[in-house]
Amino acid sequence: MTGLPSRREPASEREVDDALDPQYDDAYYEHIARTIGPEQAAWARLPRHEREAELRQMHASANTPDDIAIWPPELDGGVHPR
Predict the structure, then answer these.
(1) Residue of 42, 45, 41, 70 whose CA lies nearest to 55
(2) pLDDT for 3-20, tens place per residue?
(3) Above 90 in pLDDT, residue 38?
(4) Verdict on whether the full-model pTM lies above 0.70
(5) CA–CA–CA angle 32, 36, 41 (5° rounding)
(6) pLDDT tens-digit profile of 42-67?
(7) CA 47, CA 18: separation in Å to the nearest integer?
(8) To pair with 33 at 20 to 30 A between CA atoms, which of 4, 23, 26, 57?
(9) pLDDT-based confidence at residue 36 (cuts at 50, 70, 90)
(10) From residue 5, how far is each of 10, 54, 74 by CA, in Å?
(11) Are 48 and 32 in contact (CB under 8 A)?
């Protein structure tokens, strides 16, 4: 049928993540490299889904919840709601 809009499949989680990932000029990453180091600048250049996957792996392999907790220690690392 002509004239009807085509129906698009819902976006995948990765497509949504990529759409939300801000794009910065090279000057931004060069500033990161100068101020905190080239390794951090290279990590910042990774697509959002790769950075988040790496963070999930780090959280999963930490020895204690407070090692790299999303919540600060004064909130019990978000593990025990009060």
Answers:
(1) 70
(2) 555 566 656 666 666 677
(3) yes
(4) no
(5) 45
(6) 999 999 889 989 888 887 776 655 55
(7) 7
(8) 57
(9) very high
(10) 15, 39, 52
(11) no
Of 79, 81, 54, nearest to 69 by C-alpha is 79
Domain boundaries, the chain: 23-78
Dihedral angle over CA of 12, 13, 14, 19, nearest 10: 90
More confident residue, 74 or 10: 74
The Cα–Cα gap between 32 and 13 comes to 28
Q: What SS3 string covers the chain?
A: CCCCCCCCCCCCHHHHHHHHCCCCCHHHHHHHHHHHCHHHHHHHHCCHHHHHHHHHHHHHHCCCCCCCCCCCHHHHHHCCCC
Nearest to 44 by CA among 70, 22, 60: 22
Mean pLDDT score, 17-26: 80
Cβ atoms of 48 and 20 closer than 8 Å: yes
